[in-house]
């Protein structure tokens, strides 16, 4: 009798413990699903918040690719464990976030077909990191890539500040080819430049002269072979300007020595950078609003798709060539363990993008982007 009682008691305790464990697991899954969904939506739509008011959403937007990967891993785990209800919560968050996620990971299985009655042209944008000017021994790979691509219009950022890149020993052997392929060129004293197969005139606008910040925006009206002008804007919004000690926190994240101080310094730089970008993006938008006709905006935004700066520049009328014609995830910056897409090709007007790609070429810390369009 006593043995039977103890046996029943043990069975009851085991069942209660199992039920309690199941309840705890369900609670944990529920909590994880809610937190992950909120984090994903916060990162996806953080770009709607002006960083001059609150910078945390901009930081979240910068981390969106990482957040999305974590959420997908959690979704896979929930599906394996057959936690269907919690998986549905994650799927709902992914569905609501897709308008932003598609800017980072478009899934275009088909492309627009070229119309033989229209004019096709290729454009290229590249942050050339001063053509790696300290290397004086080998032909410059970035210039070699640009010449081999033979795009109709090329815009560069981070060109040499103090002297022309044409004086570089690694570029001089290619000058005859450069002058032949691109008879129309403009490299101002500072940062951005254009190389074109077609004539152009520089655009003068109050939006480009209203600020003395350390960023550079130039615009040109290019006379295209179809007889219509195309306004081309090359942008290079200000970099975050980390010093080597601050950058090293990203490269040695597993090293606890001084990590907290470096993280705080990085956070401050990010706050300042996002707020500066907001001001610069508004100046860009003013130029765009002044523009009538077809428009291309290309270059190094130093900010990711969905960010406040990106949304401000795009407004309701600019389209993203990668989102329209690309497939899968890419990153255009690849240094300091930061693999993010901060270079963009945006367009507006009577144009169709036929293809867009990011090439792992050159010797810059940025990869070039190339698009073919028609109109």
Report on the architecture of this protein:
This protein has 375 residues and is of the alpha+beta class. The protein folds into 2 domains: 103 residues; 255 residues, 4-Layer Sandwich (Deoxyribonuclease I, Chain A). It has a 6-stranded mixed β-sheet. It has a 6-stranded mixed β-sheet with strand order 5-6-7-8-12-9. Strands 10-11 form a two-stranded antiparallel ribbon. Strand 1, helix 5 and strand 2 form a beta-alpha-beta unit. Helix 1 runs parallel beside helix 4 and helix 9 packs parallel to helix 10. The radius of gyration is 26 Å and the shape is elongated. The termini are far apart. About 2% of the residues have low confidence.
Supply the helix-strand structural class: alpha+beta
Taken in chain order, the helices and strands follow as: HHHHEHEHEEEHEEHHEHEHEEEEE
CATH class of the largest domain: Alpha Beta
CATH homologous superfamily label of the largest domain: Endonuclease/exonuclease/phosphatase
Number of strands: 14
Estimate nothing, just give the exact number of structural domains: 2
Give the amount of beta strand, in percent: 15-25%
Biggest sheet features: 6 strands, mixed
Q: Kindly state the percentage of residues in helix.
A: 40-55%
Strand order of the biggest β-sheet? 3-4-2-1-14-13
Low-confidence spans: 242-249
* Through-space gap between termini: 92 Å
Radius of gyration: 26 Å
Looking at the overall shape, the CATH architecture of the largest domain is: 4-Layer Sandwich
Globular, elongated, flat, extended or rod-shaped: what is the shape?
elongated
Mean pLDDT rating: 86
Q: Total helix count?
A: 11
Would you tell me which CATH topology of the largest domain applies?
Answer: Deoxyribonuclease I, Chain A
């Amino acid at each position: 009798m006593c043995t039977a009682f103890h046996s029943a008691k043990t069975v009851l305790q085991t069942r209660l413990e199992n039920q309690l464990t199941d309840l705890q697991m369900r609670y944990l899954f529920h909590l994880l699903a809610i937190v992950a969904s909120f984090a994903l939506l916060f990162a996806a739509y953080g770009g709607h918040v002006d960083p001059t008011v609150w910078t945390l959403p901009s930081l979240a937007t910068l981390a969106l690719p990482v957040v999305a990967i974590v959420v997908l891993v959690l979704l896979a785990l929930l599906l394996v464990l057959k936690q269907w209800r919690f998986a549905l919560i994650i799927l709902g968050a992914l569905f609501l976030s897709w308008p932003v996620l598609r800017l980072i990971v478009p899934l275009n299985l088909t492309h627009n077909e070229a119309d033989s009655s229209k004019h096709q042209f290729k454009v290229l944008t590249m942050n050339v990191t001063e053509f790696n000017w300290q290397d004086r021994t080998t032909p410059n790979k970035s210039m070699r890539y640009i010449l081999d691509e033979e795009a109709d219009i090329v815009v560069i950022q981070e060109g040499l500040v103090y002297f022309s890149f044409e004086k570089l020993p690694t570029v001089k052997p290619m000058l005859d080819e450069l002058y032949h392929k691109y008879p129309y060129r403009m490299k101002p004293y500072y940062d951005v430049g254009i190389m074109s197969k077609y004539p152009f005139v520089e655009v003068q606008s109050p939006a480009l002269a209203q600020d003395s910040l350390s960023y550079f925006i130039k615009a040109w009206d290019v006379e295209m072979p179809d007889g219509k002008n195309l306004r081309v804007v090359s942008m290079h919004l200000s970099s975050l300007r980390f010093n080597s000690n601050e950058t090293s926190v990203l490269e040695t994240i597993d090293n606890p020595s001084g990590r907290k101080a470096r993280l705080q310094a990085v956070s401050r730089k990010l706050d300042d950078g996002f707020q500066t970008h907001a001001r610069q993006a508004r100046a860009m938008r003013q130029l765009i609003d002044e523009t009538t006709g077809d428009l291309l905006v290309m270059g190094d935004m130093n900010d990711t798709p969905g960010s406040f700066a990106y949304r401000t520049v795009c407004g309701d009328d600019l389209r993203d060539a990668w989102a329209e014609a690309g497939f899968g995830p890419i990153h255009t910056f690849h240094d300091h363990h930061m693999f993010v897409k901060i270079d963009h090709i945006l367009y507006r007007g009577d144009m169709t993008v036929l293809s867009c790609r990011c090439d792992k070429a050159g010797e810059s810390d940025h990869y070039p982007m190339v698009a073919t369009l028609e109109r």
